[in-house]
Specification:
Length: 226
Amino acid sequence: MKALKLLLFVILLSTLVYTTGCDKQQEGEFKLPDQQVTSDKDKELQVREDMLNQKTKELDEREKLLNQRDSILTSKMLELEKGVLNTDTSKTKDSKKEEKNKKNLEKEKDLNKRLDSPTITVNDYLEYIKRGTEGNFDDNMKKASTFWNNRPTDVFKKNYKDVKKFVVVSEPKVVKQEGNNAQVKVTVMQTIKGKDGKDVEKKVTITYNLQADKNSKWKIKSNIVK
C-alpha cells in the first residue's frame, strides 16, 4: 500500500515538473520574439529616417549649387554682352563725343564773342567793386579779382578798404582793340575816408588793358590811373 502511494506521488510530481517546464518554454516562445520584432522595427524606422534626412540634405545642397552656377553663368553672359557692345560702339561713341566737344567749344566761343566784350568785363568788375564798398566787402572783392589775370584778392582789399563810395561817372569805352588785345577807358568817382576823419572825393580816369583767352573770354592784365 505504501509502495502504491509512493508510486502515485512520484508520477504526480513528474507531471507537475513537466507542466511547469512547458509553461516556461511557451512563455519564452511568445515574449522573446515580440520584443525582438519591436526592436528591429524601431531600428529600421530610424535607419529610414536617417536616410531620408540625408537625401533631403543632399538635394538641398545640389539645388544651392545649381542656383549658384546659374547666377554665375548669367553674370558672365551679361559681362560678355556688355563687353561686345562696348567694343562695337566705343569708337563710335568716342568719335561722337569728340565731335560734340568741338561743337560745344565753338558755341562757347561764339557766345562769348556776342555776350562778352572788353567793356562788359570792365563794367562787371567795377560793379563788384561798387558792391564791396556798400557791403559784404570780402566776398565782392574776391569776385572782382576773378576778372583779372593773376591778381590776388588781398590787393583789392588793400586798395579799396578806405573807399566809402564808388560811382562810375562815364561808362567803359573801347579806345583800342587789335585781335585778342584791347584798351578800355572809364571815369570813376571815389569817396575816401581821410586820415583826419574827413571824407575826400577823388575823380580818376582809368585805362584797362585786357586780353582774350582761347575761349574769347576777356580778362584785365593791367591798368593806368590818371
